[in-house]
Design a protein that fits this description.
With 224 residues, the chain is mainly α. It has eight helices and three strands; from the N terminus they run H-E-H-H-E-E-H-H-H-H-H.
Length: 224
């Protein structure tokens, strides 16, 4: 079986029988601070795992509406999951669309827009960090032995929660630093009588500078 993380994550979440909808809820509210997937990804992956006999499904009664399909992991699935967990740490490609937007934002020649963009990011990261801290507070109230004598499953889950808190705090600090830098540049350009919405270089020179940065980065990474 190919090492595809979503497949292994779904296997790991099936400690108890669950529907695709149940699994999506855990993805959204349980591990959303480090992994996200849409229902359009979850259901095909579950069917693929069933075809590989790593899980099986059955129809279960539902309190509301028609019955639902419930999935449970098989012995082969547990073996595959254990092999994945014993593997070395996996690193996927990091793709942050908002960073790509900022990287190319000089095209607008509009520092006030850059500032608003960063302030919006800061608001979102602050809300996410607050949600994680609220979840940790709930855990501390639920478990008298919080945090280091938690049940083994909760102990490992809390380790990932703390990573989420540290990561979100780091994003907030980066946002605040970037906001200060943009405001300082806006103030400097205003002081010099330059409108902050006018670029210091033409579009051609901006594109050339951007290309030079990419080429220079590639040369350094190859030791040139």
């Amino acid at each position: 079986m190919a090492r595809v993380s979503l497949e292994h994550i779904l296997l790991g979440l099936l400690r108890e029988p669950a529907s695709g909808y149940d699994l999506k809820a855990v993805l959204d509210h349980g591990i959303g601070h480090f992994w996200a997937a849409e229902l359009s990804q979850v259901y095909p992956t579950l069917k693929r795992l069933e075809k590989q006999k790593l899980l099986r499904s059955r129809r279960a009664a539902s309190k509301r509406g028609p019955g639902r399909i419930v999935y449970e992991i098989t012995a082969s699935g547990r073996k595959e999951l254990a092999a994945w967990l014993r593997n070395e740490p996996e690193f996927g490609d990091m793709r942050h669309t908002f960073l790509a937007q900022i990287y190319l934002m000089d095209e607008l020649s509009d520092l006030p827009h850059t500032l608003r963009f960063l302030e919006q990011l800061h608001t979102r990261w602050a809300a996410r960090l607050a949600a994680l801290k609220n979840k940790e507070k709930e855990w501390s109230q639920r478990y008298p032995e919080f945090p280091d004598d938690l049940p083994l499953a909760a102990f490992h889950q809390h380790l990932t929660l703390r990573m989420g808190e540290h990561a979100h705090q780091g994003w907030l600090e980066w946002c605040e630093e970037s906001i200060r830098r943009v405001r300082a540049r806006m103030g400097k350009e205003n002081h010099n009588g330059k409108p902050v919405s006018v670029a210091e270089v033409g579009a051609h020179r901006r594109r050339r500078l951007r290309a030079d940065i990419v080429l220079d980065s590639g040369n350094r990474s190859q030791g040139r």
